[in-house]
Specification:
By secondary structure, the protein is an alpha/beta fold. It has 2 domains: about 5-185 and about 220-245, 3-Layer(aba) Sandwich (Rossmann fold); about 185-220 and about 250-290 and about 305-325, UDP-galactose 4-epimerase, domain 1 (Alpha-Beta Complex). It has 10 helices and 14 strands. Strands 3-2-1-4-5-6-11 form a 7-stranded parallel sheet, with helices on both faces. A 3-stranded mixed sheet has the order 12-9-14. It has a two-stranded parallel ribbon with strand order 7-10. The radius of gyration is 19 Å and the shape is globular.
């Protein structure tokens, strides 16, 4: 039985969107949580309440996963590592190849080297992405699908990191869980289609620019469902290396998301203007146009998402708008 009360846990990227939600859940489960973040994209406000409410169960280390000295200090005397630090941007103009290499691949290498030298860690949980699959012809897509052909530098950097985590786990005797996330959404997320639409409509209530042709169709998972999936995978995986898809059981297209946002903002007669010029209607170069993951492997461990994609989108839109009004 996996007992969190006996664990000391490190979360890299712990002040980020997913990382901070995970930290809160872990601290409430009774384990000691080391929050490690350089605050390049993470926010102190995401962890401020956690550090106050669980003062005896948490500590904050400001540090960069690219710097070995800080990482060695962070991994000292921990049992489980959740490696969620990364540059989260998929679009090439927001995350160029050098950034992807340094912040995703090299940072993962530095962490793994620190783990190799300490020998303390039992398990590493790595935040990967559905973009490792690239364009597929099987929906829903199972973890065994291959060959994997990422079409973005971001997806490639995550696939390379998966390979490193797997090899280090086998060579240096710790367990590894690789989580391939669908689109994870929540009120704390500062990037993605929902906040993008809200921001655009705040500037112009009459017209909404939609990247691509609007038919891009993907799975969206609410943040609470995501965190529960992460903990289930960590607690119940029993192989040296195991891969899990993490997503909802359905999908929703971009045009429908735009309609939901417009509805929740109580706007009328909004004109949708599709850019649509990139590779058969993709939102940008490297955008996977269709994504639906087979989550049967994780469901077999007892996890199931509470919200469907459209429900999650509407819930998050309501929450963001409520926060804006406060």
């Amino acid at each position: 039985m996996f007992d969190w009360k006996e664990k000391r846990v490190l979360v890299t990227g712990g002040a980020g969107f997913i990382g901070s939600s995970l930290c809160k859940k872990l601290a409430s489960s009774g384990c000691y949580v080391v929050i490690f973040d350089n605050f390049s994209s993470g926010k102190y406000e995401n962890v401020e309440d956690i550090l106050k409410d669980y003062a005896d169960k948490t500590c904050l280390l400001r540090g960069d996963c690219k710097k070995p000295s800080g990482v060695k200090k962070a991994v000292s005397d921990v049992d489980v590592v959740f490696h969620f630090a990364a540059n989260p941007e998929v679009r090439l103009e927001l995350n160029d190849p050098e950034n992807c290499f340094e912040q995703n691949i090299y940072a993962t290498h530095v962490l793994l080297e620190a783990l190799r030298q300490t020998h303390d860690v039992e398990k590493v949980v790595f935040a990967s992405t559905s973009t490792v699959y690239g364009d597929v012809d099987v929906f829903p897509t199972h973890e065994s699908y291959g060959p994997l052909k990422p079409i973005s530098i971001y997806g490639a950097s995550k696939l390379a990191s998966e390979a490193m985590v797997s090899s280090y786990a086998y060579l240096y005797n710790f367990a590894a869980v690789l989580l391939r996330f669908a689109n994870i959404i929540g009120p704390k997320s500062k990037h993605g289609v929902i906040p993008d639409f809200i921001n655009k409509l705040r500037k112009n209530e009459k017209e909404l620019e939609i990247l691509g042709d609007g038919t891009q169709c993907k799975s969206y998972l609410y943040i609470d469902d995501c965190v529960n999936a992460v903990l289930t995978a960590c607690e119940k995986s029993n192989r040296q290396v195991e891969i899990f898809n993490v997503g909802s059981e359905d999908w929703v297209n971009v045009s429908r998301i735009a309609e939901i946002v417009v509805e929740e903002m109580s706007l009328k007669n909004v004109k949708f203007r599709f850019t649509g010029e990139v590779d058969e209607g993709r939102g940008w170069k490297g955008d996977v146009k269709k994504m639906l993951l087979d989550i049967s492997r994780l469901k077999a461990l007892g996890w199931k998402p509470k919200y469907k994609s459209e429900e999650a989108v509407r819930r998050v839109t309501k929450q963001i708008l409520l926060i804006e009004r406060q």
